[in-house]
Amino acid sequence: MATEAKTHPLVVSVSPHVRDEESIARIMWTVNFALLPAFLMSVYYFGPRAVYVTGLCILTAFLSEHIYQKALNKKITSNDGSAVLTGLLLGMNLPSSVPFYIPIVGSFVAVVITKMLFGGLGYNIFNPALIGRAFLLLTWPKLMTIWVEPTAKFIALDAKTTATPLGILKEEGVARLMEVFGDKMSLYSSLLMGNRAGSLGETSAIALLIGAAFLLYKKYITWHIPLSFIGTAAVIAWLFGGKEGFLTGDPIAHILSGGMILGAFFMATDYVTCPTIRKGQIIFGIGCGAITMLIRLKGGFPEGVMFAILLMNCFAPLIDRNVAPKQFGAVKKKEEKK
Amino acid sequence: MDFNKLFQLIVAASLINNFVFTRFLGLCIFFGVTKKMETSVGMSITFTAVMVISAALNWVIYKFIMVPMDITFLKIIVFIGVIAALVQSADTIMKKLSPALYYKLGIYLALITTNCIILAVPLINSGENYNFFESMAFGVGSGLGFALALIIMASIREKLELADIPAPFRGLPISFIVAGLIALAFTGFSGLITL
Amino acid sequence: MTTKDMAKITINLVVIYVLGGLLLAFVYAKTSPIMFVKAKEEKEAALKTMMPEADKIEHLGDWEPHHKHAGYYAAKKGDEEIGYIVEGFGKGYSSYINLLVSVDKNFTVQKINVLHHAETPGLGDEIEKDYFQKQFAGKTLDTLVVIKGDTPDKIQAISGATISSRAVTEDGVKNGVKMLMEKLSGGQEKKEEGGHGVKEGEIEEHKEGHGETEGKENEHGSHS
Amino acid sequence: MAHTHKTNWELIKNGMFSENTIFKMAISLCPSIAVTNSLKNGFFMGVSVIFVQTMVNLTVSLIRNFINPKIRIPIFMMVIAGYVSLIDMSMAAFARPVYKQIGLYIQLIVAFASIFARAEVFAVKNKIIPSIADGLGMGIGFFLAMIVISFFRELLGKGALWGFPIVQGNPLLIMVLPAGGFFAVGLLMGFFNWLDARMAAKREAAAAIETA
């Protein structure tokens, strides 16, 4: 955001977050650090492939940004941590079994098309990692939905493919889900620990929550978006999610499965692509939660977090426009978001 | 009358098969007027109104005049004629009854006649054999979907005004890419309703 | 504006519109029969490939899966009925899948062919592929079941597209075969009254929708 | 009267490049995405537009002295709709597989701003031959844009051209989906803008050397 002061000779401040570049880098690297527990859990469950896929993503993201800025004679900002964060988040959103070109294409699209073409960090409308993932999901739908069973052995030779909990729920129903996981408690504990099929970084809810708690403590994110996001989703899951009718749904399973924790704390809160005003952020979170559950319960895809955040990204400028405070003073107040 | 079906038609026409993002209609207007929020809002209102009225009018003419006379092969000419007449009379009536409204929305009326999105609604209605209420629902859904697209796009383009976009991509090319990214997000709605 | 001007403008408009209308009527008269003939030929060819050994395909009647109009036919070689063909619809992931199924006299599936659908590119649209459709040969009502993973005698789901696979197998094909059995079994020797005399030349023409834009009108899918 | 002073060849070239409907004027954009998911569809759309554009220009130029200026708009519309109906019906009869996919967009050629605009600004003021040249140029320009876009989209998205497989492997499926269409047009447009700027810079440099 603050980069605009450097790139534009004429400084037009759109956003209330006036920061220097150093603080951008510090925030970005801190978020990367907060994702470390989840990354380690993914290595524990999915083995060296987790390192390979995530590493390729990060490397491509970094190089794309670096080369792009070099080629266009722009100021090089590739080591401010934001490209690395995009790569890391994309890697955490991929299945472990993908061939090498998927991380490369995805990172390239995420960084160059979603971010650099719009003028770099601070101007992108959409969350780059999520666009990268959506692009990959539509381009190689089969390769992107081959999920491998976590083995918790460092070297997994006989990786078995299986369905994600949400996939089972969508296609075969809740009875089958219980059959696979045993009972409710073991389902919850699998979801919490990460012992289930899914994207690399989304499986272990507890590791993500540790990172999120750290970010909340450091005040790099606030509770507004995550709480309204997860709260709305939970209420809808409880109201409409059950087979037997109204009020019989299982909100805990819905919160812990899929990418909801990762999405709500680490991607919906991306300070460039969400509204800047608190009230707007709550609307944004409610929208994310509602669309996620709409897609999960009624839509064609088993998981809706990615599309929900992207759709709300479209609406973020509109929300900002309509809930923007009138007095200038309120804008100037330094709001800590991430 | 099956309200469930009408509701599905509205949702499908506005979100799943959004005119702009999945049917690619009305692109000239979509890229043309979304530079400013105010024009987008004006355009949205005018379009939705004209679309619904023309859907109804054209349905009646198609069903009760063209089909009985077996002149459905003239439908392109008749539909565009009806729309032109409708727009012209709306222009005149608005000027007389509400000059203030005319001052606000009148300029958009002129742009409507040669717009594919308005013509597409009666063409699709006749192609799908929708009944009167279904045609109206389709018109409403299409109008709302188009309005949604215009308003989202306008708000995003306002934000992009300040962005440091590489020179060759400024203006239209980046708008196409934004539209592509929105279309990507709208894919999430697919499968909500089976058509 | 004088009366003379008005008259002139009116004549102007009328002449152009009448000329244009006449021209179009002429073109329409020339092209529409061709269109109908071609559409009919297409339909016949599609039916024919379902049962290549038949030399005559007779329209037996109509049914309405998912409130859509569809027909069923008898395939004949000489005077002998060698099998049946039914058009069906399956409620898929994002569209109603329109397909043809041919069965022999014992209602064992010979072949299926997907005519129209709008399923997800890259996933559901594999129902068009041979490897999926070939599985249907030799299936009966009992074995028209979708299984995830390898199966020797049932239908293996397309990976990542279970909903589309089920729509084809358990909705489209199975219901089509079921309907044929209900209508025809036990009564094979009887001449179907409704179908009598309806030769292939009279196979009903379906109104073409506009490509992939939208399915035909239907009631909301109350079926599960 | 705004008679043109350009030669016929210049008129054709003008429509093809410097006033290309899609990439330069940015009008008649709908089919640039809707029908460009395969080379075949793009080709048929392009040919239809060449036909309608040329015939409309020809007809309008032919009857330009007969048209009362007060009612020229309904008359243009009638002429355009007439030719569109004609091609619509012919395609429905003779090119059915393609028509099933792009029929709606063929009918919507009626609402093409470029066709209406050329009748209004050019054909109604010019003789028959230049009008044909102008229509042909505009039509070919549109046709070329369709071909370029659909070439890239089908090749990248399906690994095929005109339905024939060219490249094996896992193609970029998204290119034949809605989102990919917008990306393709946006990226190509940006590329042509960049090319233009480069060529202009080169010409300027050359001119500077000459004057020096």
User: Count the helices of chain B. How many?
Assistant: 8
SS class of chain D: mainly alpha
Report the portion of residues of chain B in β strands. under 5%
N-to-C SSE string of chain D, H for helix and E for strand: HHHHHHHHEEH
Mean pLDDT of chain B: 87
Given the structure, what is the number of helices of chain D?
A: 9
Biggest β-sheet strands, sense, barrel of chain B: none
Structure, described:
The complex is a heterotetramer of chains A (338), B (195), C (224) and D (212). Helix content of chain A is 61%, strand content 1%. Chain A has 338 residues and is mainly alpha-helical. Chain A has 2 domains: 24-145, no CATH class; 168-196 and 221-320, no CATH class. In chain A, strands 1-2 form a two-stranded antiparallel sheet. Chain B contains 8 helices and no strands. Chain B is globular, with a radius of gyration of 18 Å. The relative contact order of chain B is 0.20. The mean pLDDT of chain B is 87. Chain C has 3 helices and 7 strands, in the order H-E-E-E-E-E-H-E-E-H. With 224 residues, chain C is an alpha+beta fold. In chain C, strand 4 and strand 5 (109-116) form a beta hairpin. A two-stranded antiparallel sheet of chain D has the order 1-2. Chain D is mostly helical and 212 residues long. In chain D, helix 1 (8-18) packs parallel to helix 8 (128-158) and helix 4 packs antiparallel against helix 5 (72-94). In chain D, strand 1 and strand 2 form a beta hairpin. Classes of the chains: A mainly alpha (338), B mainly alpha (195), C alpha+beta (224), D mainly alpha (212).
From the structure above, extract its key features.
heterotetramer; C: 224 residues; alpha+beta; 2 domains; five-stranded antiparallel beta sheet; two-stranded parallel sheet; 7 strands; elongated; disordered C terminus; D: 212 residues; mainly alpha; two-stranded antiparallel sheet; 9 helices; 2 strands; 2% strand; flat
Helix/strand layout:
The complex is a heterotetramer of chains A (338), B (195), C (224) and D (212).
Chain B: H1 3-16, H2 27-33, H3 37-69, H4 75-97, H5 99-112, H6 116-128, H7 132-160, H8 172-186
Helix pairs in contact in B: 1-7, 3-4, 3-5, 3-6, 3-7, 4-5, 4-6
Chain C: H1 3-50, E1 56-63, E2 70-77, E3 80-91, E4 96-104, E5 109-116, H2 130-133, E6 146-147, E7 155-156, H3 162-184
Parallel strand pairs in C: 6-7
Antiparallel strand pairs in C: 1-2, 2-3, 3-4, 4-5
Chain D: H1 8-18, H2 21-25, H3 30-34, H4 39-62, H5 72-94, H6 96-107, H7 113-121, H8 128-158, E1 160-161, E2 164-165, H9 178-211
Antiparallel strand pairs in D: 1-2
